[in-house]
């Protein structure tokens, strides 16, 4: 089953999916670019639904303005399935006074949000909300894992083993995918099929992408991105190479809207709908309808499918 903010659903009902995006997000690394407008989030979701979108995975983890209390109403009002994240980002994203609190009992926090309910970011030790998380979001660093990441990876692996949940990994600049696999799969025994490697298009080297696919991991490619526009033009080169190598069944695509400037509803765009109106439309044209169905429907239904253990 797939765990959404409105409850568990059968994988075949997930539908056309944005596998990596953000409706709400706020970070010390992006001052003044907070995603904190519920009306704009609803407008983005409605436009996404109008373009044929049926599901979206929000990768915003604990402590970064998830607005978890608003997600169920957004899902109901737009008809879009929402998969929410527990997890923890790089240390630099957090207020210094908040991070020690979140790190205390971290694996138990992850498990509780996956099985009992998300907590409000303003009250991380408060009562659970009705909505539960459906994935664990964590982060590596540029070409390595720092000590913070190693701590978070260990907690994420423990939570995976307790619940079966997928682990979605922010790769800084798209780097270190095989090192992340070695840490989670080799060291902590998380099945590669439960690991989603995000931002791979930001480091467009097809060799490690193929190796990660051969190991059984999910390959997350996202964009377009104002922050990473220099590699946007390589996206379709990578998708074509993966498809020709027989790995279309490991690819997930997302918009990764992380700032107000990237949101169509608040001005800059191109926003969440462009994943379907631009990227998906070109996938159909260049790689075929069946490949598009794999990227946007069949693969997400498998990647987020979990036999929940609690």
UniProtKB/TrEMBL annotation:
Q: Which domain of life is it from?
A: Bacteria
- Entries under InterPro entries matching the protein: Metal_Hydrolase, Phosphotriesterase
One Pfam family this sequence matches: PTE
- List the PROSITE patterns hit by this protein, alphabetically: PHOSPHOTRIESTERASE_2
Q: Which residues carry this modification: N6-carboxylysine?
A: 137
Is the Hydrolase keyword given for this protein? yes
Q: Which UniProt keywords apply?
A: Hydrolase, Metal-binding
Signal sequence residues: none
Q: Which family does it belong to?
A: Belongs to the metallo-dependent hydrolases superfamily. Phosphotriesterase family.
- Name the chain's protein: Phosphotriesterase
Q: Which species expresses this protein natively?
A: Catenulispora yoronensis
């Amino acid at each position: 089953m797939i765990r959404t903010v409105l409850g568990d659903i059968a994988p075949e009902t997930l539908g056309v999916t944005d596998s990596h995006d953000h409706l709400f997000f706020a970070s010390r690394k992006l001052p003044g670019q907070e995603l904190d407008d519920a009306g704009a989030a609803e407008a983005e979701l409605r436009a996404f639904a109008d373009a044929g979108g049926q599901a979206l995975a929000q990768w915003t983890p604990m402590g970064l303005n998830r607005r978890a209390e608003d997600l169920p109403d957004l899902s109901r009002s737009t008809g879009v399935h929402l998969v929410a994240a527990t997890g923890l980002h790089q240390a630099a994203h957090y207020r210094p006074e908040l991070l020690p609190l979140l790190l205390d009992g971290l694996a138990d926090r992850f498990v509780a949000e996956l099985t009992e309910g998300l907590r409000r970011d303003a009250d991380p030790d408060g009562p659970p909300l009705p909505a539960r998380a459906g994935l664990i979001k964590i982060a590596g660093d540029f070409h390595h894992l720092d000590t913070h990441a190693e701590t978070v990876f260990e907690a994420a692996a423990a939570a995976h083993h307790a619940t079966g949940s997928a682990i979605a990994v922010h790769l800084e600049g798209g780097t270190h995918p095989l090192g992340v696999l070695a840490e989670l799969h080799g060291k902590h025994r998380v099945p590669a099929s439960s690991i989603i490697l995000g931002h791979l298009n930001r480091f467009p080297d097809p060799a490690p992408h193929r190796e990660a696919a051969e190991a059984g991991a999910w390959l997350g490619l996202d964009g377009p991105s104002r922050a990473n526009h220099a590699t946007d033009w390589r996206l379709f080169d990578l998708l074509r190479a993966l498809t020709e190598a027989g790995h279309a069944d490991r690819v997930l695509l997302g918009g990764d809207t992380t700032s107000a400037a990237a949101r169509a509803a608040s001005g800059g765009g191109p926003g969440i709908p462009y994943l379907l109106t631009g990227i998906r439309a070109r996938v159909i044209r260049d790689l075929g309808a069946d490949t598009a169905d794999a990227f946007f429907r069949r693969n997400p239904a498998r990647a987020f499918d979990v036999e929940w253990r609690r």
